[in-house]
Amino acid sequence: MAEADIEKSSYGMMERIIGIIVIPVLFTVILTVVLLSLFGFDVSRSILETANQIPLLNRVIPDPKPDDALLADDAADSAAQPAPKAEDLQELRQQIESLTLEKEAGEEQLKQREEEIRQLREQIQTMQDRDERASITEEEYEAQIAQVAKIYSDMSASKAAPIMENMTLSERVLLLSKMKTSAQVAILEKMNPQTAATTSVALKDIQTVEDIRISALQERLETQEPQESEAFTLEELGRTFAAMDARSAAQLLLEMAKTNEGRVVSVLKKMELQPRSAVLAQMSGLSESDAARISGKLSSE
After folding, report:
1. Which residue of 36, 107, 246, 290 has the fewest CB atoms within a 10 Å radius of its CB?
2. Structural domain boundaries of the chain?
């Protein structure tokens, strides 16, 4: 009897819990789901999304289907994007062609620069070779002076003196400087006293052989007769200066320019391009103003 009462009491408690709590909650949930569905809210999608966030349960619950509205919006956005116009494509093609032409022009300029560098290197090498040849010519010139001096020293002083008196002062000094002292004394004794005195002073004051050589050539040029063939003289002078050391030629031409600048310009015109460039470069190092003036006349005439 007592057991029956206890069992009846427990059943009554569970019925009350179900009737008071579970049924109202379940009813409320069902009613909420129905109302949300009526208002267009996707309840099943929300439930699936929530369930997929729960560990272990997300392995059993399927993924929610994509929202039709989102798919429709994506499709609308894709359709709203305008297709590229023919004008835009043409403009892009023109830009590509322009960039291609600029690239080809840059490559062509690079090739031209490389060609200019190659030509400059060849010119430098040519000038170096010419300087080497000029050095050989310089040695030969020195040997010729020594040989001529020996010829006069081997002659009798009475015969050598009159001949040397007809030379310019610098030429006499140049030849005498290559002789022994005894030969110098013998020849000076046979010269005209005034000529011997002038020559002796110049021989004493000589500083370098190159200076006296330059003076000798300059004096010889100044004593040329005006009625001589000008073309022949200028061509000979041009070849002479081209064969000389560039610095020596520049010094001599600058000295000549002090008295006859026009002749200097004419001589430079008769020289070939590379020797003339080397001489002008040396002239610029010695006197920029004179070199600029002569170069201006050279280009204007």
Report:
1. 107
2. 15-62, 117-207, 224-301
pTM of the model: 0.33
Listed range (46-60, 104-118, 193-207) with the worst mean pLDDT = 46-60
What torsion do the CA atoms of 151, 153, 159, 163 make, to the nearest 10 degrees? 70
39: CB partners within 8 A, 6+ apart: none
- Report the length, in residues, of the chain: 301
What amino acid is encoded at 193 in this protein? Answer: P
Structure token pair of residue 148: 């001529």
* Span between the terminal Cα atoms of the chain, in Å: 150
CA distances in angstroms from 220 to 7, 14, 17, 177, listed in the order given? 155, 147, 144, 18
The predicted model gives 23-50 an average pLDDT of 68
Under the banding of pLDDT at 50, 70 and 90, the label for residue 229 is very low
- Which amino acid type is present at position 44? S
**SS3 category, 60:** coil
Question: 119 vs 113, 124, 126, 273, 295, CA distance in Å?
Answer: 10, 9, 10, 14, 23
The burial class, CB within 10 Å (0-12 / 13-18 / 19+), for 42 is middle
